Amino acid sequence: MAAAKLCRQGGFVLHFLFFCVACAFRSPLVAGQESQQDGVQTLLKEASQRIKTKQYGDALDLLNTAIDADSAFSEAYLQRASVLRHLCRFKESKESYEKFLELKPGISSAEKELSQLSQTHSALESAYKLFESGDFSKALEYIERVVLVFSPGCTEAKILQVKLLLSLKDYSGAIAETGYILKEDENNLEALLLRGRAYYYLADHDVASRHFQKGLRLDPEHSDLKKAYFGLKNLLKKTKIAEENAEKGKLRLAAEDFKSAVAMDPHHTAHNVHLYLGLCKVLVKLGRGQDAVNSCTEALDIDGELLEALVQRGEAKLIVEDWEGAVEDLKNAAEKSPQDMNIREALMRAEKALKISKRKDWYKILGVSKTASISEIKRAYKKLALQWHPDKNVDNREEAEAMFREIAAAYEILGDDEKRVRYDRGEDLEGMGMDMGGGGGGGGFNPFGAGGHQFTFHFEGGFPGGGFQGGGFPGGFGFNF
């Protein structure tokens, strides 16, 4: 490419020299001057063609040749000023404009362009300051609406534009703009680096790696390209290790590996969304419910449509007994994928758990664990029944009667092996023809029914539903009061 450019430039110089030689053979001075003018006009015309096709470097070479041939050729200065402005070579451009106005004072169009040059230079400086301060959108406005309007060939401004697009996470835009730069100069290292980063943040890692590698072939010691290339390699390596440990069942190791991979580049959301999901799945298997909820929430914050993250978060919420949250997540997942039987089964489990959570916890009422033996249940019932018997709680009789009914109802379920099994399975026992802690008397459960030794109880004012004299406690625990 460089050789071809030199050939083109040499051709134009030889073309100009041809006119000079021709002048030497024409003895009249006027003929020589006319030929010289023809030569520089030809160079000017060729330069104009290069400007139209945005070949600013070639155009500048032609214009410099023309000015060397005729230092008073004002039009060449004007065109050179314009080309230098296009390339953001503001100081040189200003000098050429001033030289033109020295040769042709008072030309308003040139004065206007000189003013635009100053505005463009100021806009580029402002864009850099805004970029440094983090106001990327405003900086991009300066570049697109001012700098690249008046200096469309300014590679410096185009590179800054790409950096701003990356900062604004417009990765597709960055890829498009670097494509234009590389079309003009396929070996532009900065463009290769930025284009690779854009593909990287889109998680197109293979393409990103190819751009970094091409840049390193051109300059093996380029520090930013080396950092980008080896950073990507290490990230993919750590991700692979985490996934392999998860597959092998090495869950604790996998969890730490997933966390380490996320920490390598917290801003790489397109890749981290899968790391967060992998971490969530591992944490669910480890029974670390709240950590799993947090990890899946991170994934869903990045991609709200990630079905598997929604399902896993539902499973995690079951672990932490957030029944309503689990039902909500799994219901949303079922709506997104109505044919998935695994999701439907998980939703049914969550709905059952929610329903169970809303019923009375008889174990809690008796103050025993869910693994308590029948003897432990009987002892707890005996103790609480004595504590809350209405005759022993004259000053708070209504509260005592309510508590006494609850205790009796709890024992009715947990003291019966068959009913306890059904209750533990989540079955609804409300329709068993018994009062589960509701009003007393009538057909309700009588905690003093027959069975065991008979004792007499004297209730001042009578038990709700009418006074009575009953037998021992259920299971034969008789007491005198």
From TrEMBL:
Keywords carried by this UniProt record: Endoplasmic reticulum, Repeat, Signal, TPR repeat
One GO CC term, this protein: endoplasmic reticulum lumen
Metal-binding is among the record's keywords: no
Compartments reported by the entry: Endoplasmic reticulum lumen
TPR repeat start-end pairs: 189-222
Signal peptide: 1-32
Regions annotated as coiled coil: none
PANTHER family in alphabetical order: DNAJ HOMOLOG SUBFAMILY C MEMBER 7, DNAJ PROTEIN P58IPK HOMOLOG
Oligomer and partners: Interacts with BIP1.
Protein name: Chaperone protein dnaJ 15
